[in-house]
């Protein structure tokens, strides 16, 4: 298979390169990026090559005075003003923060990362039974959900599991990660519920307001696997994007590569032992009318690896619902009119998926004209 994807050496002309056929061949192999690495490639296939970055998009020098906020939840039961204010600033100014003393046992974090890696390192023939692009499936193994829409493919594979609002039957999960996925799901949902209460209070609402809007009703777990890349400077692990959910809680390993955009500059989100990374989703920015910001982020490819991370997206995803989401009325006034039109979660995600990771925020599509 690897021979089908080798990048040509300059003897090939543009007319002989059929991008769609190369994408299809990669997709049909059902072996993902890891399959390419296992085949021993030394150059990344052309479908992964990132178009040349223009000067105005290049990364600028990073000021040393900025660091990703870290929120200590140890005294969460007291609802201290310090914690609430920290959440308000982090969610409203950066859109990204890390939480420590969050209540999820260290053993659960370690076992979840190990199980995620264990799945992706199963033989391809075992993983193939989960490989699909049928978005209605609750357990999906694949590489690049937007493979046919994106300008270039990302250097990662993903196991996507819809854990709620309808409970996922454990038997639907691969055996190698079954038990810990169920336990991690339970623990991370509990933490998410707490964070939604904090975020509600931080923007001037009652603690249960966002929960009452079903923001924590459903969640999905995405186990990402970023193999070591032979030419990391030519591609990305994940293209710049913001998440199409209300809130994301990320468990990442020590390899690094996650970056957040702040004031038009990229900042590393460092590995902090025992911490979980939290970022505001686009839907939460929409309903908070920009009181909370969904920061754009990306993952660099790395010659070291594999990098493993597990993202929890708080969203009912494609679960049938008639609930309409728009800017929360309690946050609006004559001085603060609605900035976005109303939408359903399903319509928002459908639009997001249709455009893929194109480095443009989906929120622009839902913005009301001034």
From TrEMBL:
Residues 217-316 form the Fe2OG dioxygenase domain. Gene3D superfamilies: B-lactam Antibiotic, Isopenicillin N Synthase, Chain. The keyword Mitochondrion does not apply. It comes from the Eukaryota. PROSITE patterns: FE2OG_OXY (PS51471). GO terms for molecular function: dioxygenase activity; metal ion binding. Keywords: Iron, Metal-binding, Oxidoreductase. Transmembrane segments: none annotated. InterPro entries: DIOX_N, IPNS-like_FE2OG_OXY, IPNS-like_sf, Oxoglu/Fe-dep_dioxygenase_dom. Its cofactor is Fe cation. The keyword Oxidoreductase applies. Belongs to the iron/ascorbate-dependent oxidoreductase family. This is Fe2OG dioxygenase domain-containing protein.
């Amino acid at each position: 298979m690897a021979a089908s994807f080798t990048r040509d050496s300059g003897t090939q002309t543009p007319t002989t390169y059929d991008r769609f056929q190369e994408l299809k061949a990669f997709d049909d192999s059902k072996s993902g990026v890891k399959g390419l690495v296992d085949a021993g490639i030394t150059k990344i296939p052309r479908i992964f090559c990132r178009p040349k970055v223009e000067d105005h998009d290049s990364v600028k020098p990073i000021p040393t005075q900025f660091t990703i906020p870290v929120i200590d939840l140890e005294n969460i039961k007291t609802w201290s003003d310090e914690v609430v204010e920290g959440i308000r600033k982090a969610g409203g100014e950066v859109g990204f923060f890390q939480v420590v003393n969050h209540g999820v046992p260290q053993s659960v974090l370690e076992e979840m990362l190990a199980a995620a890696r264990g799945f992706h390192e199963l033989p391809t023939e075992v993983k193939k039974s989960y490989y699909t692009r049928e978005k209605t499936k609750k357990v999906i193994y694949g590489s690049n959900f937007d493979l046919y829409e994106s300008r270039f493919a990302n250097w990662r594979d993903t196991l996507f599991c819809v854990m709620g609002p309808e409970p996922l039957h454990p038997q639907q999960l691969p055996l190698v990660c079954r038990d810990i996925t169920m336990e991690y799901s339970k623990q991370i949902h509990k933490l998410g519920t707490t964070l939604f209460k904090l975020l509600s209070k931080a923007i001037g609402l009652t603690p249960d307001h966002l929960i009452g809007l079903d923001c924590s009703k459903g969640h999905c777990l995405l186990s990402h696997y970023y193999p070591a890349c032979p030419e990391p400077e030519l591609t990305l692990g994940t293209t710049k994007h913001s998440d199409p959910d209300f809130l994301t809680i990320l468990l990442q390993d020590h390899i690094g590569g996650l970056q957040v955009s702040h004031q038009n500059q990229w900042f590393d989100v460092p590995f902090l032992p025992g911490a979980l990374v939290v970022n505001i989703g686009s839907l939460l920015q929409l309903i908070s009318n920009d009181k909370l910001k969904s920061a754009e982020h990306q993952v660099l490819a790395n010659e070291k690896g594999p990098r493993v991370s597990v993202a929890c997206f708080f969203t009912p995803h494609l679960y049938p619902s008639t609930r309409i989401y728009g800017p929360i009325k309690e946050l609006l006034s004559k001085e603060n009119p609605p900035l976005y039109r109303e939408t359903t979660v399903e319509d928002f995600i459908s639009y997001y998926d249709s455009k893929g990771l194109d480095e443009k925020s989906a929120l622009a599509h839902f913005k009301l004209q001034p």
